[in-house]
Write a structure and sequence with these properties.
The protein has about 280 residues and is an all-alpha fold. It has a single domain, classed as MetI-like fold (Orthogonal Bundle). It is about 70% helix and about 0% strand. It is elongated.
Length: about 280
């Protein structure tokens, strides 16, 4: 008996049956809701200092304890989640938009245009992404905007390569050839017939890219090149707590756990979406 289930139906079944994807979606949803609702959920101000009780461990009053200045760590972790998620969303949005446009032009026109864009991508791919981001932020100066700019500059290449490959395949489809023969302009062909075929894998790439952007922002903040105090960031909190690893490990443990949990959640969700886009990969 042949399987008459459409590809979209099999993709939805792949997500529904994947406990990993459901776990990832749940983690991401919980962190988003907690970050948005933090001001209303928590009675503590992340900027208020309680110096007499500095470095106090977890308690019923302060679940994650207090930092080196007596500030509530749970409140600062949730406020840091806002920074990380904002950076991830903006970086992925800018990178995917630029990459989609560049990849579409490169794949559709081919020839010298494709060669020129390919050389630019090869140059950017030749440098380790994090080292290039560190160099850019060091030149521009440490700030949230410069972190987003640096990560977007190195992030669009992956999306462009992905879209280029999809466009090279889709431009030879019969309905694309027919639209071209009927006189449809390039913009209409790309937007209506070619780029929609690249959206499913692009969504998977964007989901996994969120994890990479959040981890990169934390790394830059850990090095002092990202978000500057007093604005909390998971990377900054981990860096500040490493001098108290023996006497107050909660300063590092809780921001590190949240960072690992969010990155893992986006990776789980991305794997589930990949199985939905290509159900054959689920059995590999």
């Amino acid at each position: 008996m042949t399987d008459s289930t459409p590809e979209g139906g099999r993709g939805r079944l792949a997500i529904a049956r994947s406990g990993q994807a459901r776990a990832g979606a749940a983690i991401v949803a919980v962190v988003f809701l907690a970050a948005i609702g933090a001001p209303w959920l928590l009675p503590w101000d992340p900027a208020v200092q309680d110096l007499p009780n500095r470095l106090q461990g977890p308690s019923w009053e302060h679940w994650f304890g207090l930092d080196e200045l007596g500030r509530d760590i749970l409140a600062r972790v949730l406020l840091g989640a806002r920074v990380s998620l904002l950076v991830g969303l903006v970086v992925v949005g800018v990178s995917s938009s630029v990459g989609m446009a560049v990849g579409a032009v490169s794949g559709y026109y081919g020839g010298r245009v494709d060669q020129l864009i390919g050389r630019v991508m090869d140059v950017l791919m030749a440098f380790p992404g994090m080292l290039l981001a560190i160099a850019l932020v060091a030149v521009l100066g440490p700030s949230l905007i410069n972190v987003v700019l640096a990560l977007a500059v190195i992030g669009w290449v992956g999306y462009a390569r992905l879209v280029r490959g999809q466009v090279l395949r889709a431009r030879e489809f019969e309905y694309v050839t027919a639209a071209r023969a009927l006189g449809a302009n390039t913009f209409r062909i790309l937007s209506r017939h070619v780029l929609p075929t690249a959206l499913p894998p692009l969504l998977v790439q964007a989901t996994l890219g969120m994890a990479g952007a959040i981890l990169s922002e934390a790394a830059l903040s850990f090095l002092g090149l990202g978000v500057q105090p007093p604005t909390p960031s998971w990377g900054t909190m981990i860096n500040g707590g490493r001098v108290h690893l023996l006497d107050a490990p909660h300063l590092t443990v809780f921001p590190g756990l949240f960072l690992a949990m969010v990155v893992l959640g986006f990776n789980f969700l991305g794997d589930g979406l990949r199985d939905a886009v290509d159900p054959r990969s689920a059995g590999r």
